[in-house]
Amino acid sequence: MSNSNSTVLEALASAMASGDVQTVDLTHTLDSEFPVIVLPPEFGQCAPFRAEVVSQYDERGPGWYWQNISMCEHTGTHFDAPVHWISGKDLPNGSVDSIAPGAFVKPACVIDCSTECAADEDFLLTPEFIQAWEKKHGEIPAGNWVLMRSDWSKRSGAAYLNMREDGAHSPGPSADAVRFLVEQRDIVGFGTETVGTDAGQAAHLTPPHPAHYLFHGAGKYGLQCLTNLDQLPPTGAILLCPPLKIKNGSGSPLRVLALVARSAA
Amino acid sequence: MSESLQRPPRKDPQKRTVTPTLPPQARSRQAIVFSTAAAEGRLALQTCGACEHVIYPPRELCPKCWSMHIEWRDIPDGGELVSETTLRTSVNTYFRERMPWRIGTVKLDAGPLVLAHIHGDVGAYARVKMIARTDKSGQGVLLALPEKETANMADDKQLRELTCNPKHRRVLVTDGRTELGQRMAAALAEAGASEVFVGIAENWRPYAGSAELAAMARVEIVPLDVTDTVSVNELAGEIGGKTDILINTAEYVRPGSAMQRQGILTARDEMETNYFGLMRLIQAFGPAMRGRGADGDNSACAWVNLLSVYALSNWQVYGSTTASQAAAYSLSQCLRSEFTGSGVKVVNVLFGPLEESWRQPLPPPKVTPQRLADSVVHALQQGIENVTLGPVAEDVVRRYKDDPFVLERELIQSGERQAI
C-alpha cells in the first residue's frame, strides 16, 4: 500500500475519532412487526422476520443466549441484487455473493422529495425533478448511489404500506427517471425509504415495476426500507451497504451505514 | 328457578388461587365408552343385543339373559326422580369444597335406575331430562335437569361445573382478521362473556370488517400473530392470567397436494399457523389456564380447537394443508392429556368445508362462519368436548368410526375425482 493511500485512511480514522466524520445508521430494526411487501395471495410471499430463542441462560444453555432467526432475503432494510428480477437473471455477477465488493462502499446523492411525497403519496420522481436537483447540487457522478428521500420511514403501521383495495400507495421513480439514471448517469444503485424501490402502484406503469425491471436489467442494485435519510447531506456521504454473502442470493437484509462529514450533516 | 349468576368481583390479589381438585377419576374400560358419548353430549348406555335390556352400570355381559352381545346405544333422555339426598359432608375434597351437593336416583324411561347429580330446579319426584356430560375429571356423569326450561337454568352450580358457559368469562379469539373470527367474537359477546379479546396479526395490513369489530361491545382488539413466538408470549404476559376460554380461530388453508407444489414454503406456512401456532399458544397460555381450573365463577374452563374434519384422514385436494391439520389434531390430543386433572376442557370442533375464500371452488354443503361460531357457543354452554359440524364432517366422522382404512380409500377416490 502506498504512502498516500495510508494517509487517506489515517486521515479518515482521525476524522472519525474526532467526530468530524460521523456514522449515520440508515437501518430499521429487524422486528417481527415491521411490514413486508404483500403480493396477491396466490403468489409466494415474503416471510417476515422471526426469532426463536435457542437458549437464554436456562436449561437449554445455562450460560448463553442466542436465537435462530428466519426471514426472506427481502425483509426489513434490504439489498436487491440484479438476479432478483427476471430482467437481470442472466447478468454476470448478478447475485449478492458474486457482486464485486467495491459496489458496497460508494458515495451517495440524496434527492429530497419529502415535500412532494407528503402532498402526493403516489409521487413519481421524474428526470425533470432530478435535473432540477442537479442544478442546485451538481450532476450525479457515475458510480454513485442515488437515494430518494421521501420521509416514508417516519410512517408506521398501516400508513407505511398504505394498502388500499386497489393496492399500495407509496412514492417511487417513474420509468423515465430510471432510464435517465441508468443511461445518462450510470449510477451504481437506487435506494428508497419505502418497502420497495418501485412506487406502490408501479404494477400499472410501463414497463411494470420499472425500478426493478430496468435497474436490475442494467446490473444496478437496490436498497429499500432505509431510514434517517433526512440526516444525510444532498451529496458527499459515503454509503456502506454490504449484503450477506448468500450463495446465489437475490438480496439480503443488511445494516446500511453512511459516513457523513459533520459540517455537511 | 336458579339464582342468576352475577359477574364475579375482581380477584383479591392477596388470596391464593385455589388448586383444582377432582371428582373421582377411576372408571372401568367399559365406562370409557359412556364418557366418550358424554363428551359428544350423547346419553348412551349398554343395551343387550339379544333381549334389548338396557344395562346400568356397564357390564361385560347382560345381567338378565347372560348374552355377551352388548352394544352401546343412545337412549331416550326422559326419567323420573325417585329419591334424592343433599350431601353436606364428603371425604372427597372436590365435593367437600362444593357442599351442599344434590344427588339422587332416577328411573329412566329406558328402564334402569341410575345414580345422578340433580339440578337445583328439579322438584321432588318430578319428571326429569337426563344429560350425560364429562365432569372436571373428564369422566362421564349423569345430571338430571328439569323437564322444562327454568329461569337462569344454566347458572345452576352443579350444571355449571359440567359446562364451560362463557357468561361472565373472559375469552380470547386468536384471529379476528377473518369473518370466522369476527362472527366468533360477536357470538361470544352475545353469550355474555365479560370480555372478548380478539387477536389481530399484522395490523399494518387492512382487513375487511375491522371497523365493525372495533365497535363491538365488550370486544378488545389485541395484537397477536400465532406465527410469531414473541407476539404470542407478549400477549400471554398481559392477559394469560385472565384468559378463561381460548378459541383458536387462526387457520392457514391452501389447496394443493404434495406434488402439485414446488418447494415447502407453503407447507411451512401451513405448519406455522396450524401446528406451531397451536404449539405456541399452548406453551404461552396453557400453564396459566391449567392452574386456574377452579378459580371461582370465572375459572379457566375451555380451550377450543377448530379443525378441518380431514385432520382425521387426508384429502388430496387440500393434501398439504390437511397434513398440518392432522398434526394440529394430534397436538390437541396431547393438550387434552396435559389438561387432564385441571378441570379445563379441550373442545375440538371437526368441521366440513367452510364458506371462505380459500375453499371457494368446493361445492356445497358448506359450513358458514356464523354456524361454526354458534356451534362453539353451544358446545361451551352445553359442556360438550367433541363436536362434528356439517353434513360432510358428519359423513367423514361416521365412516372414520366404522373403519378409518375404508375412509382412507374413499377419500383417495374422491380426491382423484375432485383434484383441482
Please summarize the sheet with the most strands of chain A: 9 strands, mixed
Q: Fraction of residues of chain B in helices?
A: 25-40%
Radius of gyration of chain A: 19 Å
Major sheet of chain B: 7 strands, parallel
- What sort of overall outline of chain B do the alpha carbons produce when their principal axes are compared? globular
Strand neighbour order, sheet with most strands of chain A:
1-15-13-5-7-11-12-4-14
Number of helices of chain A: 6
Strand order, biggest sheet of chain B? 11-10-9-12-13-14-15
* Global morphology of chain A: globular
Class by alpha and beta content of chain B:
alpha/beta
What are the main properties of this structure?
heterodimer, A: 265 residues, alpha/beta, 9-stranded mixed β-sheet, two-stranded antiparallel ribbon, 15 strands, globular, B: 420 residues, 7-stranded parallel β-sheet, 5-stranded mixed beta barrel, 21% strand
Task: Describe this protein's structure.
The complex is a heterodimer of chains A (265) and B (420). Chain A contains 6 helices and 15 strands. Chain A has helices at residues 3-18, 114-119, 127-137, 158-161, 175-184, 210-217; strands spanning 21-25, 50-58, 61-70, 78-80, 105-112, 124-125, 145-149, 163-164, 167-168, 172-173, 189-192, 221-224, 237-240, 251-253, 257-261. A 9-stranded mixed β-sheet of chain A has the order 1-15-13-5-7-11-12-4-14. A two-stranded antiparallel ribbon of chain A has the order 2-3. In chain A, helix 5 (175-184) runs parallel beside helix 6 (210-217). In chain A, 40% of the residues are buried. The model of chain A has no long low-confidence stretch (mean pLDDT 96). With 420 residues, chain B is α/β, with parallel strands linked by helices. In chain B, helix 4 (179-190) runs parallel beside helix 10, helix 8 runs parallel beside helix 9 (319-339) and helix 11 crosses helix 12. At the A-B interface, strand 2, helix 4 and strand 8 of A face helix 6 and helix 7 of B.
